[in-house]
Write a structure and sequence with these properties.
This protein has eight helices and 14 strands. It is of the alpha+beta class and 261 residues long. The longest helix is centred in the N-terminal third of the chain and has 26 residues. The radius of gyration is 17 Å and the shape is globular.
Length: 261
Amino acid sequence: MMTPAELELRRYAVQGLVAEAGRMALDYFGKQESLGVTMKGAQDWLTVADGAVEDFLRQRLAVLFPADTVIGEEGGGAASDAVWIVDPIDGTANFARGDRNWCISIGFLQDRVPTIGIVAAPALDELYIGQRGQGATLNGRAITVSGTEDIKRAYVELGWSTRIPSERYLAVLERGYAAGCSVKRSASGALGICHVANGRTDAYAELHINAWDVAAGIVIASEAGASINDFFAGDGISKGNPILCATPALAPQLREITGIS
Ligand code: IPD
Ligand code: CA
């Protein structure tokens, strides 16, 4: 088991990598005509930046932490008791269209416990950091979840993908509106969870999401006081799971609305 100081050293090292990866991604983002956009499936976008940023992070993580494993959205990988979970570009559909709401997300799980989370949104000049037991920050300032208690004031993000039949998504959306929530979708699960952490929204829910979308955000949001389901239960690392991340007072009602517990 690593000490908090050892974990902090790891966090600093990876912050440096993420800053470099962020400059790389931003460079691609500034040249929209050469992004080499292709589709992995319906509404599942890929650009050359996704592969390039993931390759860069994998190479550097292997040098820094040769005994650890890496799981990435583009290249896969295996879990271990020290695993980095990487989404090179989350919000690729936004990235490919010139919308700034995208990020690089890296989470570290020690003995399956989410321990370090770094989410960088270079086009927005925002860096979220969380370390288990050490709090969460946005650009160096401590962040906390909102204090919203009334569901009729709640602002909820409901993530969507073609992995879930539209009827199921629409049923949750309908129950959310019927309860009085304002619902949105911004197409980056990692940033959506960070927005719960700093109180811009009151909850992020999605009926299925992959580990690379949420591994970092879970550390950041839980350190900011969010209530989050046990996402890594069962095969969560390799196959994904539902996620519900909410300010605590709203969590019970949102569990009912989303069916995610
Ligand atoms: C997607 C985004 C989206 C979420 C999907 C993810 P990608 O990741 O995070 O917001 O709803 O579940 O697959 O394709 O942009 O890396
Ligand atoms: Ca993603």
